[in-house]
Structures are given as C-alpha cells and as structure tokens.
Amino acid sequence: MEYPEDLKYSSEHEWVAVDGDRARVGITDYAQDALGDVVFVSLPASGASVSAGSTCAEVESTKSVSDIYAPVSGTIVDVNTALDDTPEQLNADPYGSGWIFVIEMSDRRLFEEAAWQLARPLDKASVRVLALEPGGPSTLSAWPRIDKASKRALIDVIDPGSLPAAMGSVSGQTLLFTERAESGTLDIWMLPLSDPARKSRLFGSRFNEAAPRVSPDGRAMAFTSDESGRYEVYVAPFPPAGGKTQVSSGMYAGLDFQQGARWSRDGEELFYVSDERRLMSVRVLTEPRLQVGRPTALFEMSGRAWEDFAVGPDGKQFLAIVPQTSAGEQPLTVIVNWPADVRP
After folding, report:
1. Burial group, residue 200, by CB count within 10 angstroms (0-12, 13-18, 19+)
2. Is residue 78 within 8 Å of residue 104, measured between CB atoms?
C-alpha cells in the first residue's frame, strides 16, 4: 500500500495535502482497500462550515457505508464532483483523482499543532498502543501524544512482522510491547521513548509472554504466559526483579492471545476473564512489597466471552467487545409451523 511522505494522515485514515491555507482531503490507500469497491460518494456542500472531527461526507461501498471526517476546521471551498459519475476513482487513485473536498482553514496554526499520524500509520506497523498513565485507566490514545521523532524511531525498532503489540507508557517515558522472537514465541520488551534504540527484553523464554500492562503507580506489571501449558495472568514488580506470581487459574486469552488483565484506576485491583466466562477480580498491593490476593468471580457472562474490555473509573462498570459469531460459524434459521400445502 502507498503512503506518500508529503501528506498528513488523520487517525480516521484521511489524508491532507496543504497549499497555503487550503487543505485538500481524501482517504488513504488503506481505507479504500478496507472499504472495498466504492459505489457512491455523498459530497459536502460547497460553502459549508466544518469543524475538525465532524462528519462532512459519506462513502458507500459494496461492504458498508462510512463517514468521512473533516481533519481541520474551516469552510468547504471545492468538492470533487467527478466522483458523482466515477466514485470508483477513490479505489483507483485515492491520492490523485480520488480526492474528495478542499477546506479553507480557519486557523493554519491549529493545523500545524495537530497530532498527525505517520506516513506509515499504526496498522502498517501492526502495533496497538495502550497508554497507562499514573492514576489513570488504560486508553487507546497514546500514539498521537508521542512526538514525531519518537514515532519514527519506534517504527524502526519494532518488528513490523510481529504479532500486534500491546504497548503502554509509564509516566509517558517508557513503552512495553510484545514482539515475536525468531523461535516463534512472544516476548515482552521495554524501551525508553528518549532513546528507542535501547530496547531491552523484560520476559523472554521458550514460552509465550504477552499483553503487558503496568499498574497506575508504575510499581507492578501484569502480563500473560503459557508456561503452565495454557495462558494465565501473572504479576511482577516493575521493573521486573526476576520473580513473578501467577494470578489466575484458567483465563480466557482471547482470539489473538492478547486479552490479559486490566488494572483498576487506583491500581489495587486486577480484572480478567476466566475460561468459564466469568469476570474475575483480584486484590493487589504494590507497597511495601507486591502482594496478590485470591481471585473472586464478580459475575458470569450471559453470552460469549469478552474479546476486549475497559474498566470504568469506579471499578464497577465495564465497556466490553462481545463477538456475535465465531470464525466459521454460519447463521441457522428455523421455521416452525410450516404450512402443509407448501411442504416439499
């Protein structure tokens, strides 16, 4: 896929080409590929005012209908009306004749200060970023807050062919990530943002270690390992001092084996999904030394096991991704009371 270096890229996979105070906008090669064959483009009205992050266009493909967001604030001064007759140009030439609209920016300074993505965006490097801030819960917003030089350095030192990495920052200075070793197993690495070339392996063995997450106070880390024969949750001091404690006795690792555990906001509790589809809670103390309690079942999940989840600020509410079907499953429709006169 192409990612021209002279363009800016939003987190929603729009590209921006700037000429003075005007910003030409389109969708990336990655976006058009994910959409499939484009069959219709709903263009914004020329002269309309738009705010950064607002929906201003719509693209319909054979797969879905997707919103296009304004990456900057200003006024629509031009639209690509050729897409009315040839919407397939979004697929054929996304960075050229497939452009969508032009915005006269209301404040060029805001454009310069915006957190743009790399020309090689996050999914290109196969990296998922989780920010772990002291006193705060996990979020998926760390990447835009990392400066451009550090982003480029990270792309260089993290193996693009590795399994998507669960990454986290401690005080905004250190990242943890999972990378596949030459042997095929997963290892946990750490690197300082100030010098990404100094990455070091935290856990590496003939087993898989993955899904690292650091406690809010930065004194402990949770991760998963299959050294027992199946994936389980472990905790260890951070930085590791050679020991670790098994927390779970049967966990659901998720489809990508990156499920792991989640910390509460106060860092005194870990949550994970058991292999019996129960949400489990474990008390953890990080001072004066690391102490781990016994797992307690909070509730049983009524449907499928959660593939991913986040913990609310109060530690009592959860936002979860629940799959509707599993790979290979096909829906089954059962018709009852079939009329006798139409039976085969």
Report:
1. exposed
2. no
pLDDT tens digit sequence for 108-164: 877 776 545 544 433 333 333 333 333 333 333 333 334 444 444 444 444 444 433
Half-sphere exposure of 2 (CA within 13 A, CB side): 13
Q: Give CA torsion, residues 288, 291, 296, 301, to 10 deg.
A: 90
The residue ranges of every structural domain in the chain are 8-113, 122-321
As a three-state string, the secondary structure of 194-207 is: CCHHHCEEEECCCC
Domain 122-321 in CATH 2.120.10.30? The answer is yes
In whole angstroms, give the CA distance from residue 188 to residue 314: 29
27 Cβ contact partners less than 8 Å away, ≥ 6 residues apart:
13, 14, 15, 35, 59, 68, 90, 94, 98, 100
* The two structure tokens encoding residue 145: 């807050």
> Measured between alpha carbons, how far is 265 from 262 in angstroms, rounded to an integer?
10
Q: What's the first-to-final CA gap in the chain, in angstroms?
A: 51
Nearest to 55 by CA among 40, 39, 71, 38: 71
Strand partners, 166: 128
Say if CB 193 and CB 173 are below 8 A apart: yes
In order of 163, 207, 324, the CA distances from 90 in angstroms are 30, 45, 31
Instruction: Give the confidence band of 69 by pLDDT, cuts at 50, 70, 90.
Output: confident
How is domain 8-113 classified at the CATH fold level?
OB fold (Dihydrolipoamide Acetyltransferase, E2P) (2.40.50)
Q: What element of type H or E holds 145?
A: helix 142-145
Helix, strand, coil percentages for the chain (3-state, nearest 5): 15, 35, 50
Number of neighbouring beta carbons within 10 Å of residue 20: 8
296-301, long-range: CB within 8 Å, 24+ apart, which pairs? Answer: 298/271, 300/276, 301/273, 301/277
